[in-house]
């Protein structure tokens, strides 16, 4: 899918928000500046968040919950994680029980990334455009891509 610019990248995130359920994991890959946080902002705003959406690069995890969002969501940025074993301290397994887990830099999880995660990759495509590709396992059939 080609996204013509930041607005379309945010709109793709908003489209995904419409089909999310607690327990879902969205793994969002791409190089620095690819548009991962823009996609996440679109998703969070579509779920009802009114404020500025910061990148969780420094805190690693930013949890959101009703009433600020329609459903609980953990926004996770693993850029600074060097060893997948560090992830055990974050409580991501527990978060899945009742929240969506949106992960930037999921490749840092290695084998710990859940096989049922929706894997999205954003890559530059020309000057301002992005190419969004995905791997959608069985739990995502009929939900992604949004039609």
TrEMBL record:
Ranges in a coiled coil: none
InterPro entries with a match to the protein in the record:
P-loop_NTPase, T6A_TsaE
Q: Which domain of life is it from?
A: Bacteria
Which keywords does UniProt give here?
ATP-binding, Cytoplasm, Magnesium, Metal-binding, Nucleotide-binding, Transferase, tRNA processing
Which Gene3D superfamilies does this UniProt record tie to the protein?
Answer: P-loop containing nucleotide triphosphate hydrolases (3.40.50.300)
Q: Which residues form the signal peptide?
A: none
Where mainly found?
A: cytoplasm
A molecular function (GO) term: transferase activity
Any one biological process term the GO annotation gives: tRNA threonylcarbamoyladenosine modification
Listed Pfam families: TsaE
Q: What compartments host this protein?
A: Cytoplasm
One of the record's GO cellular component terms: cytoplasm
Sorted alphabetically, which PANTHER family does this protein's record hold? TRNA THREONYLCARBAMOYLADENOSINE BIOSYNTHESIS PROTEIN TSAE
Q: What's the family?
A: Belongs to the TsaE family.
Protein name according to UniProt: tRNA threonylcarbamoyladenosine biosynthesis protein TsaE
